[in-house]
Amino acid sequence: MATEAELEHPRKAFGWAARNASGLLSPFNFSRRETGEKDVRLKVLYSGVCHSDLHMIKNEWGETTFPIVPGHEITGIVTEVGSKVQKFKVGDNVGVGSLVGSCHSCQDCIDNLENYCPNPILTYGVEDIDGTMTYGGYSDSMVADEHFVINIPDTLPLDVAAPLLCAGITVYSPLLYFGLDKPGLNIGVVGLGGLGHMAVKFAKAFGANVTVISTSPNKKEEAIQHLGVDSFLISSDHDQMNAAIGTLDGIIDTVSAFHPLSPLIGLLKSHGKLVMLGAPVKPLELPVFPLLLGRKIVAGSHMGGLKETQEMIDFAAKHNVKPEVEVIPIDYVNTAMERLVKADVKYRFVIDIGNTLKANF
Ligand code: NAP
Ligand code: ZN
Ligand code: ZN
């Protein structure tokens, strides 16, 4: 018998979903709406695996509605456009990130900061405008208003481009906003995973000296030789950390789990900025004295607006800023999630949806 998710809309869709907080993903039949007049429909070819997908399928933030089809680093090819679509045509290479809707009328939306809209429609796991649930990119097709669709230049292969849609924009936006994009600055990056390696790449493209602060000694050699990292500190090595005190202008913190902030604040120069991007389940402890004594700033940042996302993609294409991906078949995705838990990733898993996801309608 057909489930509710299969009957909501006229168009059949197929993906992989988690049914409960075990987070185990398995095949899932559902449906998507018809292509509306401002909608772009795409065949999904690749979907990146963000740590937020992992937090969500395990209900670590306590806000997951099951079944959930994750995936918000989506690339593919346009298969249909509505009659009023202006930016895209059938056959275009496109991407969809973390947002498929927003209110369009609040100040943040007016300022092209849809990512801070109080009523965003996330790409998966929330109620859409018609009361149905949104489902993400671990699936064969997507449909979204053209405002939330990004053009991918031909010079960016679609597998490599996928992680830019979340990891890329999430690090690019704060580097610009907090003035950490100036040549010659000393920039720290904490956690060398999906977001972290993109922070390294964009900071290097802006002309920074980059220091990685990591828990994984086995990532050091490749980080220096391949990613061009200037300095690699093991966070548990107190001698290394002490030697670097007061050296950094800004730090991008991408750690997905609880960790102490005090040593990181110590690495900042006076007036330095620690920007939090990771979303650990447990609140972190913020020591105040080290902030007061150097007029330091601790801030946060969340994804990016659609205009800035397109600018980031165009910058990445122009300056050859390309994510390092491990392309996997869909039936490897549960193993990939286990590896993500162990920080065993260099540096982003991308699911080859086009070649390995087979619908069983
Ligand atoms: P990821 O690929 O798993 O990378 C996280 C890295 O953090 C790991 O590779 C590891 O790097 C480090 N790490 C993991 N556990 C740690 C621990 N217990 N202590 C210290 N370091 C640890 O994850 P991601 O996809 O980059 O996402 C990172 C975080 O950002 C997640 O919480 C995710 O939900 C969040 N996020 C936020 C936004 C936003 O808009 N703000 C957007 C996307 C994702 P090392 O091996 O180098 O230590
Ligand atoms: Zn993400
Ligand atoms: Zn809004």
From TrEMBL:
EC code: 1.1.1.255
Necessary cofactors: Zn(2+)
Q: Which reaction does it catalyse?
A: D-mannitol + NAD(+) = D-mannose + NADH + H(+)
Q: Which domain of life is it from?
A: Eukaryota
Q: Which Pfam families match?
A: ADH_N, ADH_zinc_N
Fetch the SUPFAM superfamilies from UniProt: GroES-like, NAD(P)-binding Rossmann-fold domains
Transmembrane among the record's keywords? no
Q: Which GO terms describe its molecular function?
A: mannitol dehydrogenase activity; zinc ion binding
Q: Top-level EC class, please?
A: oxidoreductase
UniProt record, GO biological process: lignin biosynthetic process
Q: Where is the Enoyl reductase (ER) domain?
A: 23-351
Q: Which UniProt keywords apply?
A: Metal-binding, NAD, Oxidoreductase, Zinc
InterPro entries from the xrefs?
Answer: ADH-like_C, ADH-like_N, ADH_Zn_CS, CAD-like, ER, GroES-like_sf, NAD(P)-bd_dom_sf
Q: Which family does it belong to?
A: Belongs to the zinc-containing alcohol dehydrogenase family.
Functional description taken from the UniProt entry: Oxidizes mannitol to mannose. Provides the initial step by which translocated mannitol is committed to central metabolism and, by regulating mannitol pool size, is important in regulating salt tolerance at the cellular level.
Q: What is this protein called?
A: mannitol dehydrogenase
